[in-house]
Every structure is written in C-alpha cells, then in structure tokens.
Write a structure and sequence with these properties.
The protein is of the alpha+beta class. The protein has 5 helices and 18 strands.
Amino acid sequence: MKLKHLTLATCVSALSLCMISCGNNDGKDSGSGSAARLEYAPQQNVVDVMKLERTAFHNQLISNGKLSAASRSSLNFSSSGTISDIRVEDGSLVNKGDTVAVLFMENQQLALNSAVISLKKAELDLYDFLARQGYLTKDTASVPDDILAMAKMRSGYDDAVNNYRKAENDLKGCVITVPFGGRIADLDIRQYDRTTSEPACTLINDSELDVKFSILESEYPFIEKGLTVKVIPYADRSITATGTVRTVNPAVDKNGQITVTASIRNNGKLIDGMNVKVIVEKDVPGQLVVPRSAVVIRDNQEVLFRYSGGKAVWTYVNVLMSNSDSHSVTANKERGAELSEGDMIITSGNLNIADGTEVTIKDGK
C-alpha cells in the first residue's frame, strides 16, 4: 500500500513539472513549430500521351500447337541379321546417302555370289537353246519374242535373274542409308543386336517445321493461306520463330474446330515435338490503334482519356479488335463520344484520374 502512494506522488510531481515547462513557452516557439510542419502540395498527375493516327492493326488469332519436322522417315534394315557397326548417334547431322548402320553380311554376300554363278549358267543355257533353234548370235534383239520367251523359260534364265536381284537387294538391305539430309533421332539399336521389325532410328529434317493447330469454326473467315504465323515455345517464351499458313482443312471436326498447318523456319532453337503458342497475324488497314494501357474500365464501360488544354477528357470507346499489346478502337456513339485522328491520347498514368483532371505530360513532351 505504501508503494502505491509513492508511485502516485511521483506521477503527480512529474505532471506538475511538465505543465510548468509548457506554460513557460508563452508561444515563443510557435514560429519554429509551423516551419517544422509539412506544407501541403497538390498532387501532380503525370501522364504519357500519343497522337492518334489511322494505321494498320495487327489482328491476332492465338492457339496452341505442336511442332513436327517437315520431312520424317523411319529407317530400318530390310534384311535380317546381326548389327556389326553403328556410325551415328542421336542428333547426328547426315547427308543423303550417308550410312547409319551395317549388318554382318557374309551370308548375303555368299548368296549373291551363288546367284551370279547361277545367272551365268542360265545365260549359257539360253544361248545354247537359241543356237539349236538356228539363232547363232548373242544379239537377242533379232530373236522373235515368242521364241525368246520360250528360251528364257526352258533355260531357267528368268528365275536366275530374279534370284540375282533378290540376293543383290538382300545385300543392300544390310546397310541403312539416309534418303535425305537431316538429323538422326530415336536411335534404338546397339552393336551385336539382332534386327527386329521396329525402326532402328528416325530421320528428321528440322530445318523447316510444321505446326498444326486448331481454330474455331467462327474464326474460319479470318484464316487464309499465306498469313504470317509466329510460334513461341512454352519451354522458353523468349524464343520466337516465324512462318506462314500452308494449308487450311476445309472441314469442321466433331468438336467444331478446323485444323490449320503452318510452315515454320527453324531458328536453330526449335525441336521436333515441342509445344508452342501459335499467333496468326493479319493486318487490318485504316484503324485507330492505341496501346492496351490506354483503355481502362469505368462504370463497366471501356474508356480512354484524351489530353486537351492540360486536362484529361473522359471518352467512351468500343474496342473492335485486340492483340497482345494494342487495341483497335472507335468512339462509342451511343454515349455521345467523339474520337478523331490527331487527338492526343493518354497512354499511362490514367488509372487514378477522372474527367477534367489536370494532368502534366511527362518530360514536358
């Protein structure tokens, strides 16, 4: 209880000293107090502007697609056997006629040698038969067709020719050669493996790629052959490659979509099977084009601000078309709005301004 009295007495003394101190100022420091207070400065609304002109609007249709090599071939041995040598790997660049892999081919070589011997014997038998028929020359062009056909059959010449060609093809089938220049992919063989029916590898020419994508039935009037196409890989959005629409399927599928194929020039950063964002561009001339940042929503309406006499003028607009960075706009006549070439349009700093707000152009431009 004594402690409480002491504490209360101490508080009263401190309060008294504070009141005396304040009373001794007699307003002498009022001037310095005013100087310490922050002076009110009106807010400045700094904006960027642009001059409105009629120009071509880059209308865009956006879809998803997958890249595929324009030329592709599955390669395999046409003969069976054991793999002797593999001369490529995944990613190898090859030219037309280059060797991919080779089989042990002793048996096929022996078969070809036997076929050559059989063919030579059948040839002798053919000429011998013709000689017995009174034709002493090896120039079979002078022999009537029916006599020559009978001679080839009886001598076994036709069978010998077929066996020779088969043995020759079997030997060639021990080697995989590439039919066109490109890149090796999906190599799925090893040395000493036995051949199977599965492809040994895939040859792709990815210097040019196809991209297939779908559009809605309602978007069909927009699309046409020759339009510019951009693709952006989802794996790296900093990469962009361009091409053109090559084909448009003239049929709507069961999902109400139309398949479009475009050819893309590979910039060296795209690969077969890559998933991409597809942007088809078509220029629409004579449009009033503004950056997307110029249009804001007020009262659930699309609005932009014109700059006039140092003030922002609220202008209702209709957005006709949009792409990734711009709008094509026209004045909303139902709202009594006006918009003309030469108007100065506020493109930034417009989020917190209203009709009649005083604004300052950035950098005095």
